[in-house]
Amino acid sequence: MPDPHHSDDIAIAAGPFSGPVSAPVIVASVTQPVAAAPVRKDASDPALLPDEAVLYMPTQDFSKPAARAIDGERRGSWVPRAAVVVGALSLTFAFAYELYGVLSFVTMTPIQFVFLVLSTITFGWIAFGSLSAAMGFLPLFAGDTTDTLDVPAASEPLKTKTALLFPVYHEEPHRIAGTIAAMAEDLIGLGKAQQFDVFVLSDTRGADEGEAEEACYRALAERLGGIFGVYYRRRIENTARKAGNIEDWVERFGGAYDHFIILDGDSVMSGEACVRLALAMERDPRAGLIQSIPRLTGGTTLLQRLQQYACNVYGPAVASGLAAWHRDQGNYWGHNAIIRTAAFAGAAGLPILTGRKPFGGPILSHDFVEAALLQRAGWGVHMVPSVEGSYEGMPPGLVDLVVRDRRWAQGNLQHLALIPRRGLSAMGRVHLSMGAFAYLVSAIWALSLATGIVLALQSQQLIPSYFQDSKTLFPIWPMIDPGAAMRLFLGTMAVVLLPKVLGLALELKRAADAGEIFGTPRALAAVTVETFFSMLLAPILMVTQSSAVVQILSGVDSGWKAQRRDDGSVPFQFAMRFHAWHMAAGVAIAGICWLVSPGLLLWMLPVVAGLILAGPLNWLTGQKAGPALSALLSTWDDRDQPAILVRAHELSEEWRARFAAEKARKLPANDTGAVTVPRAA
Residue 15 domain-assigned? Predict the structure, then answer.
């Protein structure tokens, strides 16, 4: 009998051929319809993929109560969280009290009150971050760790299977291939290669670029065949960007893997780090995600050197502090983290937000939301600052940094619509709020500076009233308390510079323990140079982030652009045009300050100088750092490079050279010889 739900079967059974045609023919036509061509999922060769292992990943519904997959007590303690919050509130109250004393001679005007509120909010944000770093500094200085779960040694036996995922979008395939080859060698040397596979998940557009990628990863897969699994897939449609790329992998192949580790196009992780994270997942069945703390590396431009030094010297205290009060309700930064596949599939399916862009559509900064959703289902989200061997790169120039910041700003501000949704944990809401406020605070700082300039102009134009009351016999002279002003200045500087001071203390201790002869003077000079440049760059980023916030709130979408990884240089003329209105604003502010008071100009000099020099700074920081600055701003990873980084660079150059030669000869690449397999394998 025909299937009433199949239109082709109905047409055959009831058509003109149903009468005169013999029964066998009718039966054959009904029961053996012509098979439809399979739907093509990828633009790449399906032979480069393993058999699918389907895993259902439902979209989460915030309108319904969360289905908890894991029950049990949280490991978080209210003590460290209360210490950070109470400490930050206390410092902020003290700041507001002193600023009130400076501003209000007798009564406070509305514009003074606005300045007080804006400045207090900005200071409170800084105080919270500084106290968090102080909380992380104490255990680090004592030689302890704030890891939120136990991380076994890599020598222990590993039973589970983990996928290493490289989501790429117009990345240089030869660099990724070199990184994969180096990580494969590391895992082979540890005897754990069979417990890991690599997937390169491409969203690259264009047939030519896609073919170049496919040729490179096909050669890598052939070279490592039988030793280490390497798979490649390029989507036809890059729906939902990186988050959709990962979701596609989970639903098609995730069922074959207990965990997966996300790596960015500029990420590198040692085999030991990968194995230790997988073992930690095995040991703790309640862990849904474990975030390593990647160190910045590989920088060659001045901006990269400055960022690298700041991250690697000041960053450990900051990361340790976050782990101390996050506990098992931490955050996810989108890469260099291991995730339990079943937990992610069951709890982290992202909904499409209603409304128009930039707030509607796919969730852009998906990592924060995925961490919140894992917490919502009861899974632990951990940070392990003590795990070594996790690295990433950074934007090479200021233009690249601004472009990335613009995209992040839109994604983080998009979270404002998610914060009030039901079912999220308190810490999940905290993470989403902090991510959004990190960009809003730039606009608040800019408004506070603008308000301060208005106050200065007002003080020059208005004639003070010395008799506030008709019954007053004697005039009330407006007087500023110089002691309060000095206390306010010194206290603010202490809080702002505290993370740098703590990082410097740890660096001096490390240099002393290592017996470095020039460790102390180099660290002091490097922190001075980095602080000088950060003071100049801060107002530029303040203005660009404030502009981004205004654009986003106006409905302007950021788009999705490929990132530059190495060369951050721009022509001098382009840098001057790019920052023309920043520099014009700096000149205008300097002129206003000078008219009001030369002392005010001196007070505003860091902000004014940064804006006036925005164009030259952009051009300068995008250039290669010279030998002197490179040596001064070098970190311990620069002076004693980890083996995995050295090997990844060597193999990347080999792959680059081989494929460049093949391209020049216009012959297919069929033999790389890039990977050295240890004899023990």
Answer: yes
Q: Global pTM?
A: 0.86
Whether residue 377 is predicted with pLDDT greater than 50 in this model: the reply is yes
In a domain, 496, yes or no: no
Instruction: Write out the H or E segment, with its range, that includes residue 273.
Output: helix 271-283
CA-to-CA distance for 402 and 544, rounded, in angstroms? 7
What whole-number distance in Å separates Cα of residue 128 and Cα of residue 133? 9
Cα separation of 14 and 181, whole Å?
61
Cβ pair 611, 582 in contact under 8 A: yes
Burial 394-421 (b: 16+ CB within 10 A, else e): bbbbbbbbbbebbbbbbbbbbbebbbeb
Query: 199 - beta bridge partners?
Result: 165, 231
Give 463-466's long-range contacts (Cβ < 8 A, gap of 24+): none
Q: How far is 299 from 289, CA to CA, in rounded Å?
A: 28
pLDDT digits (tens, 9 = 90+) for 564-618: 666 667 889 999 999 999 999 999 999 988 888 787 788 888 899 999 999 999 9
Residue 400 near residue 564 (C-beta atoms within 8 A): yes
Please report the DSSP string for 224-268 in residue order: HTTTSEEEEEEBSS-TTHHHHHHHHHHHHHGGG-SEEEE--TT-E
**Any domain includes 429:** no
Q: Which of 272, 313, 91 is nearest to 186 (CA)?
A: 272
Selection from 279, 277, 316, 322 nearest residue 296 by Cα: 316
Q: Is residue 18 part of a domain?
A: yes
The two tokens of residue 121 are 């909010």
Residue 334 DSSP code: S
Number of structural domains found in the chain: 1
Please count the other Cβ atoms lying within 10 Å of the Cβ belonging to residue 611.
26
- Residues 183 and 273: their CA atoms lie apart, in Å, by 10
How many CB atoms lie under 10 A from the CB of residue 391?
24
User: What strands lie across the sheet with 162-168, from one edge to the other?
Assistant: 229-234, 196-202, 162-168, 259-262, 337-340, 287-292, 380-384
Residue 635 and residue 388: Cα distance in Å, rounded? Answer: 15
Q: Is the pLDDT of residue 6 over 70?
A: no
Residue 519 banded pLDDT, cuts 50, 70, 90:
confident
For residue 24, give its domain range. 7-36
Tens digits of residue pLDDT in 280-294: 999 999 999 999 999
Rounded Cα distance between 462 and 453, Å, is: 14
Which residues 6+ apart lie within 8 Å of 384 measured at CB?
Answer: 147, 148, 149, 151, 277, 280, 290, 291, 292, 293, 323
Alpha helices (H) along 554-612: 572-578, 580-596, 598-603, 605-612
- Residue written as token pair 């754990």: 192
Which H or E element spans position 102? helix 78-103
Strands 390-392 and 268-269: antiparallel
